[in-house]
Amino acid sequence: MALKYIDRRGTDSAKWDALDSQFGDPDLLAMWVADMDFKEAPCITEALKKYIDTAAFGYYSPGKGYFDAFIEWEKKYHGYDVKREWICFAPGIVPAFNWVLLWATKPDDAVILLTPVYYPMINAAKWNDRTLIQCDLVRNGMDYTIDFEKFEKDIAENDVKLFIMSSPHNPIGRVWTPEELRRLMEICRKHNVLVISDEIHQDFVFGDNKHYPTATLGDYDDFCITMTAASKTFNLAGLQNSMVIIPNEELRERYLEYQRRIHTYEGNAFGFVAVEAAYKGGRAWLEEIKAQIYSNFEYVRDTFAKEIPDVTVADLQGTYLLWMNFEKYFKTQEEVKTFMQDKCGIAFDYGEWFGGDNFVPFVRMNLATTHELVDQAVQSIIREIKKL
Ligand SMILES: Cc1ncc(COP(=O)(O)O)c(C=O)c1O
To answer: Which atom of ligand 1 is nearest to the CA of 34?
Structure first.
């Protein structure tokens, strides 16, 4: 099976066709938004075609096949024994963590994040008038670790109610170890902090790293909600279908009650059909895209090390997002923007988005594309850095 590249310009793709509104330049090379420039696995296309040919597009109710496919995937690849009744629906993980934040906390309550982190988590706290507590990860070169003492102190001093975690961690590519996850969870237990473990990147883990669902590492069911999806794994984000796993009955009832109030518990038929097909038949395709991503990563890492060693990158333990450090060259957001957009012609996610001033000299590159496009980005960065 060969991965099929799609030139997505002109397909109303957010990554390629919203460049003008987001960056003010429609002609940039799009290396931002975390989706892929590849057609979905053939088993998904077939299932969708079959549905189009045989079904009427009335209201949809997901059947046993959908839940079984997900349950089997979690068990087989992640060792998580999920019960059918724990699985709740969400049209996306971003709406889901916003909903939980809304019913589990009150205005001004404190929400803690390990920064830099996926910026919709920051916005969830800010836009809903919660107090955002940023506990910066500790950086040593481009290796990141957690300052557990600071994490606990921040929680205790600010009476934190909710911790939203990215595992694996977007944007720095860390796959948290069981020891790290357990320490975080024990601190949260001690201080009565509800945890959302966002595991949407669970299927992108490389080398000797292994993803452990947080919920499997201890008796955390009373204060841990896991969120995951096939959307990142199989490039289905536009179909809006995600899983929220809530083993605790009381928490689950609060989630469902909130959904009833806003009447958003039914998803799009195509999302369910695609996700079921993906979990049932998409593994070989996933292995191919993972190989593509990792070889893109090695190429960027090795080429920068040889040509422009002062630009450093984080190790890609997990995710398909590469965190790159330009601190030897740039101090301000304006300098980064001028260089990336005006000189190199590339749209990256800017470091500042992931937590503010501390992350200005960083950018995040999306590696889920062709070698040719990655090379184009790498060569323009090298060319322009050498001119500085
Ligand atoms: C950590 C993380 N959570 C959630 C999402 C997106 O979630 P959704 O599209 O399901 O709202 C992303 C997308 O990049 C992500 O990186």
So the answer is: 14
68 by Cβ neighbours in 10 Å (0-12 / 13-18 / 19+) ranks as middle
**How far does residue 200's CA lie from ligand 1's centre (Å)?**
6
Q: Ligand 1 within 6 A of 237 CB?
A: yes
CA distance 148 to 241: 34
**And the tokens for 199?**
């595991």
Which domains does the chain possess?
Answer: 14-41+284-387 (3.90.1150.10), 57-281 (3.40.640.10)
Give the residue from 81, 113, 116 showing the smallest Cα distance to 97.
113
Task: Locate 312 and state its tokens.
Answer: 């450093």
CB 317 within 8 Å of CB 206: yes
What pTM was estimated for this model as a whole?
Answer: 0.98
Verify whether ligand 1 is closer than 6 Å to residue 117 (CB atom): no
Q: Which of 33, 89, 121, 200 to mutate to test the pocket of ligand 1 (most atoms within 8 A of CB)?
A: 200
Rounded to the nearest whole angstrom, what is the distance from the C-alpha of residue 309 to the centroid of ligand 1? 31
37 touches ligand 1 (CB under 6 Å)? no
pLDDT digits (tens, 9 = 90+) for 292-332: 999 999 999 999 999 999 999 999 999 999 999 999 999 99
Structure tokens at 353: 């988005």
